[in-house]
Design a protein that fits this description.
This protein is 72% helix and 0% strand. It is mainly α and 164 residues long. It is globular and about 50 Å long. Residues 15-116 form the Prepilin type IV endopeptidase peptidase domain.
Length: 164
Amino acid sequence: MSITVYSAAWFLPFVLPICLYVCYTDMARMKITNGANLLLAGVFIAVGLIALPFDTYLWRLLSMVIVLVVGFVLNMAGAMGAGDSKFAAAAAPFIALGDLRLLMWLFTATLIAAVVTHRGIRMTPLRRLAPDWASWEQGKKFPMGLALGTTLALYLILGILYGA
């Protein structure tokens, strides 16, 4: 992996609670809050100064802007939710450029697992554990924050275990 153990270890304790919150709110309310996205971006802005060399830090900030613009276009085309787009932009600077291929595989596997798990639980008595979640009643819509948040958390955990 291209991410360093050092940077992953700095980021994970701050990012993990935000990722868990995003998973929860998107399943419960079908919404990734602006506050969570701003907090995630703020964590990178503050902790990134400690966790990364300054030139890498600046390039990663640029990735946030690029992903935000792409996400905005995808949202306008109806291909992606606004909260999902903003979360992807806020998460982008945590990802080392050399890990993009790994991240795509990790996201694909996480998305499949999240859809199967969410849809499976929705059709079982386990659903009664959270009967008021909005995501149960959305038909084909899926709480993408579940997959996005889990992917970022898993990426940083893998960075601690297998990073450079």
